[in-house]
Amino acid sequence: MTRLRGRAAAPGVALAPAALLRPTEVENDDGPSGSPDEERRRVEDALARAAEQLRELAAQVSADVGGDQGDIFEAHAAFAEDPELRARARERIDDGASATAAAAASFDGFRELLAASDSEYLAARAADLDDVRDRVLALLAGRSVDVDVPNERSVIVAHELTPSQTASIPRRVIAAVVTETGSPTSHAAILARSLGIPAVVGVAGIIELLDDGTELAVDGDDGEVLIAPDEETRTAIRERITEAGRRREQLEELRDEPGHTADGHRVELAANIGSETDLELAAAAGAEGSGLVRTEFLYLDRTDAPDIAEQAAFVERALTAFPGHRVVVRTLDVGADKPLPFVAREPEPNPALGLRGIRLGLASPDLFRDQLRALLRARTAAGDAAGRLAIMFPLLSVPSELTEARRHLDEVAAEEGHHLDGLEVGVMIETPAAALAADQFAAGSDFLSIGTNDLLQYLFAADRLNAEVAEIADAASPIVLQLIGEVVRAAHAKGAWVGVCGEAASDPALAVALVGLGVDELSMNSAAIPEVKATLRESTLAHCRAVASRAAEQADAAAARAELKGACSDQEA
Ligand code: PEP
Ligand code: MG
């Protein structure tokens, strides 16, 4: 039995034989087979057919998975139709290259630009481009890009799994997905999560240790893969799979129940929304509204800003998805790892410490005010039967940013003839400066929402995208728990409620501690809601408080985590 570690990309466990997915072979280039005109036509035809196939795949995925998952392939089709790419291929043919060499070189030129990006998000798009390139090269060679679909349920293992490969293997034969490269933000990982398939990425060197049919145990919760597990481990994994099935059924019964502790202390359990699909997943998971709608996806991957009507239409759909609940829409949070192509900015030496979040909003008031206008119009259009809009500002560090952001909101509301009565305004607590000034932020707002992802990054000076320093920034760290306790105390004293919308909220043991610290709302990815709900319902408020204060007194994160874990299995406070 060999144990390999990777990065957890989609939760769940599986035990099944491996099916190795071979990479598409790139054709040897024997030079042009026809005149430059013929070669040009061949490239044009291959690009056009690739775009057509990708649009068909988009339609099929949208039908199978629902929502906007098919959009990935619409974007791929747009790559194949990119005028710049076609012009580059034509130029190369004019210089004597074959259709194949010209297409490969043009794609690779684009790829280098993306792969060189510091942004994990953009670097992940380089893999998307390879997917389109391989399809075009296969079409030029008269070969199919269809993958060999395994006959039995298998763990699909690939060096790099392209989104189109993931989508073209029927769900029923995929027990899990393992890749040697990739990150949890790659589309293959995103697709695996929405399909409910366990996935581990970044398992370097696994392919050379395997044959087709080698049994694998995949732990998508811990990011671990076991090759040829021994009998004892297989039995343990089977038990986990059975137990997970039983737990799923139990949790399903709680779907429409509200979040509260065993003794009835109310805690709202909301979903984080980052796409249209997330709205459906949230409803299916029984989310009580949304504590964080990340609006960035409306802006990324495009060459101009979305217009007000498009933004308003999405927000209206988000409000309509949660009747009777609150929907916290966060204003644009880009910059750092999520640059906007249409907002021209000088490159920054330290983007994570640069013009991001509310800073970019205040520096680009037209963009910011258009978004506020869209939010207010969506609120009017959705009407009283829909969810209640709340507006939240990201990455504040000084109270004057809140004053400034609110001034824009007041002015836009006046221009729109919109009454702000009943509209809650909140601030994300994501910088140490904001956490320490929580009382001032709470005095100027209705709620604070702690974004633990960024708060940890800035508190520990540990880049949230750098796996090598990830362990330093642990949400269970006693100083983090103490700081959250202080933020809650300061906010409650000013009559503001407090949410947590970073990843920490989705960890059941941490959720218990957060509730013990007085947090009123937890917002998380939808898949985590059922387990957090069940765990809280098994714990009294007194238990949550006792666990939180014991964990906060420990010397370090490891000791605090041990305290939380022990407390979750033993409900006696
Ligand atoms: C956070 O920083 O915790 C947060 C929720 O915001 P994002 O992950 O979108 O930066
Ligand atoms: Mg953040």
Strand order of the largest sheet: 1-8-7-3-4-5-6-2
Radius of gyration: 25 Å
CATH architecture of the largest domain: Alpha-Beta Barrel
Terminal CA distance reads 40 Å
Strand content: 5-15%
Low-confidence stretches: none
Mean residue pLDDT: 89
Q: Cofactors and ligands present? A: phosphoenolpyruvate, magnesium ion
What would the principal axes of the Cα set say about the shape? globular
Name the descriptors.
eight-stranded parallel barrel, 48% helix, eight-stranded mixed β-sheet, binds magnesium ion, TIM Barrel, alpha/beta
Provide a descriptive summary of the structure in words.
Helix 2 packs across helix 5 and helix 18 (508-516) packs across helix 19. The mean pLDDT is 89. This protein is an alpha/beta fold. The chain has helices spanning 36-65, 71-80, 83-94, 99-115, 120-140, 163-168, 187-195, 231-253, 276-285, 308-321, 358-363, 365-382, 399-416, 432-436, 438-443, 452-460, 478-493, 508-516, 529-537, 541-552, 557-569; strands at residues 2-5, 7-10, 13-21, 154-158, 174-179, 199-201, 215-219, 224-227, 268-273, 290-294, 326-330, 388-393, 424-429, 447-450, 497-500, 521-524. The chain has 3 domains: 2-24 and 147-250, Phosphohistidine domain (Glucose Oxidase, domain 1); 36-141, Enzyme I, Chain A, domain 2 (Orthogonal Bundle); 254-572, Phosphoenolpyruvate-binding domains (TIM Barrel). Magnesium ion is lined by residues 430, 451, 453-454. The site of phosphoenolpyruvate has 10 residues, from strand 10 and helix 16.
